[in-house]
Amino acid sequence: MSESKAQRAYRFIRERIEDGRFSPGYRLVLDTIAKELGVSTVPVREAIRLLEAEQLVTFERHIGAQVAFMHEQEYLYTMQTLALVEGAATALSAPTIGADHIARARAINDELAETLDHFDPHRFTELNHAFHAVLFEECPNPHILDLVHRGWRRLTLLRDSVFGFVPGRAHQSVKEHEGLLRLLETDAAVLEIELAARAHRTNTLDAVLAYQEEHRRSGAGPDDRT
Fold this sequence. Notes:
Elements: H1 5-18, H2 30-37, H3 41-53, E1 57-60, E2 64-67, H4 72-93, H5 99-115, H6 121-136, H7 142-157, H8 167-185, H9 190-218
Antiparallel strand pairs: 1-2
Helix pairs in contact: 1-3, 2-3, 4-7, 4-9, 5-6, 5-8, 8-9
């Protein structure tokens, strides 16, 4: 049995949400999607309503349909927890972080910097994870390391491509990465490293929460749903 036009539109949009091509906050313009699929806007609108029911899409006044971010409270809790455990894991890894680790992490950070000119939030997130993994994977405490892995998995489930919302944060993140590397290669105090790693994570959280608040304010007004 062949799929309906609405099902095809649903699959088209969902696949792009899941692989990051439609990142959080991406505006879903009915006419554009309909033209790409060669259908009318009716099945596209039906597909968007299905995705909205699954909480993958939201509708904002004066903005329209866009890819959902995540439950703000869940993101807050996850990032707060990850800031603590990843900060600890990075600090505990510090004594065994050698020149090869620093070189590997710096090479990834250089690649992150290169992506800023033609920004791809999904790719940036992948490289960001790879960078931090170099710094925390040497953690000798398996329980803390397990919590770090759980936190990153949780962010993936929440579709953590937050740099699509706040690309300006990506530039600052690259700078903070270099600061972390300098602390590690100069044998800074373990507590200083832990606090820097923790602040790096909470800086992203603060940027996203600020965006969410601004987005809510700018979205106020009469319902222009189409």
